[in-house]
Give the backbone structure.
Amino acid sequence: MTSADQPIDDLRRDIEASYDLVAARELPEVEPPPTEKPYEPDRDRERVRGRIAYGLLALIAALTITLMVMAIRGTSLDDLTKLHAIILTPLITLTSGIVGFYFGAQTKRD
């Protein structure tokens, strides 16, 4: 063995000694992680449905108030009727279908 190999042999012995110390040490007993309930999307789905339904109802209320303000400010009845037919009628139809589906699914579940 040459003198150049001596530091490498010392290092190898140190590593083996530290490995033996780690291997001999008793590891603490680890508890398994708590089991989680599987994800059920029902709660989140109901929350989103509710937000959509209430958002559409709020949109209808805002548009109705806007039409009333326009009527008070002197917008012609013909213009108001056109706006009502173009914007509010399809929105009410859409909202009634969504709200009916939301509350129907909620009643069916109860």
